[in-house]
Write a structure and sequence with these properties.
The chain is of the alpha+beta class and about 100 residues long. Helices cover about 15% and strands about 25% of the residues. It has one domain.
Amino acid sequence: MAQCGKGARTNQLKWTDLAGKTGTTNDSHDAWFAGYQHSLVAIAWIGYDSPRSLDDKETGGGLSLPVWMKYMSRALRGVPEYKSTMPPDVVSLGGL
């Protein structure tokens, strides 16, 4: 589960196995969120076919993440959460 950053908003979906990354190009021409769950990867991209600014305040976290979350909330219905196991030769420090 995301602890900080824009991706932490995925916690609203109540899934513990989601991860992703927001992105915004220079001059806000493109905004995206690329995220995944164990069995599904999806990317929400927003931009114009002919490059122009979306607006100087628009970002991947503000525009694309809500689209990705809406899609994933439907796509993951009935899909069990994935519980990963730590390999035996990996050591956890400080509970991370």
